[in-house]
Amino acid sequence: MHLELRHLRSLRAIHEQGGLARAAEVLNLTQSALSHQIKALEEQTGVQLFLRKTKPLRLSAAGMRLLRTAEQVLPLIDAAEAEFRAVELGRAGRLHVAMECHHCFDWLLPVMDSFRRAWPEVDLDIRSSLSLKALPALVRGQVDVVISSDPEEMPEVTFLPLFDYAPTIVVPADHPMVAKGYAEPQDLAGETLITYPMERARLDVFSQFLDPAGVEPAHLRQVEQTAVALMLVASGRGVAVMPDWVLRAHAANPELKLLPLTRRGMVRRMYAAIRTEDMAQPFMSYFLRLARTEPVRLMRGAG
To answer: Where is the HTH lysR-type domain (predicted)?
Structure first.
């Protein structure tokens, strides 16, 4: 038996409308075309699906069994078609974000929260576990956006600028470096450097500051949470380098002092890497707009 979705839809329409004429109108068919369709289906199944001498037209026992199948299958098909239409129109999709910066949670979570309210049909996730292999995961289609400060030349991947930030060193308020007013690489040679648990090459303090100068800190200490790192700094247990947007909320803490890296300061840029083919997605454009504005709001000290 060759059963098609149109057969199930026709059977359901006739049952709901109580006759061929009204069902044909609902299905945008002629009554003759609908009658031939049902006749062909009965010939395939070898059973009578309707009790034709009843008014309104009623399903036979075999027809009722087929109707139950239609009532199970058609809602699933209708839902799938609605999802496909939503994807085609740009209302639905997937936005899985991976980060190459531990501290990006501070602004990315508010961005994702705002995004979900505007695009409820888009599946969201933050894949921090992929932080060390985020760009290969993007190419393989495992994630859809990578937040990174290290753009690379990659085929079919576009790096879009989000915002600039200043890596800033935070030291105890009574630290000798405070009188100098800024930090040079050699100043960290005798320090315990507190960092996030990330690959060394992904930390600005190494890639942009210490490694080019050939300087190693006396000790390294990895800490997961920003609040814990700042508590250790305030206790005189070390110094830390973080983006200015992370430290802005702690600038008034009398136990801490924020200083630029080098006399002139250092500026870095954050990017969103996406597959080039996804740039036209409406929800992707919306996410990028949020990702450009939320960090600026934090830098300005907005609540």
So the answer is: 3-60
Do 101 and 271 contact (CB within 8 A), yes or no? no
Q: How far apart are CA 35 and CA 29, in angstroms?
A: 10
Residue 121: both structure tokens together? 């049909």
Q: Are 279 and 144 in contact (CB under 8 A)?
A: no
pTM score, whole prediction: 0.65
Q: 151 with 140: CB under 8 angstroms?
A: no
170, 230 Cβ separation under 8 angstroms: yes
Amino acid at 201: A
Domain parsing of the chain, residue ranges: 5-88, 94-162+270-299, 167-260
Using DSSP's 3-state secondary structure scheme, residue 291 falls into helix
The closest alpha carbon to 55, from 31, 20, 23, belongs to: 20
pLDDT, position 85? 58
Class of domain 94-162+270-299 as given by CATH: alpha beta
| Segments of the chain with pLDDT less than 70 | 1, 54, 79-92, 128-132, 298-303
CATH number assigned to the domain covering 5-88: 1.10.10.10
Of the candidates 102, 104, 100, 113, which has an alpha carbon nearest to the alpha carbon of residue 287? 113
Q: CA-to-CA distance for 84 and 90, rounded, in angstroms?
A: 10
Element (H, E) at 178: helix 177-180
Cα-to-chain-centroid distance, residue 275:
13
Angle at 69 between CA 68 and CA 71, to 5 degrees: 65
Topology classification of domain 167-260: D-Maltodextrin-Binding Protein; domain 2 (3.40.190)
pLDDT of residue 262: 96
Q: Quick check: do 5-88 and 94-162+270-299 share a fold?
A: no
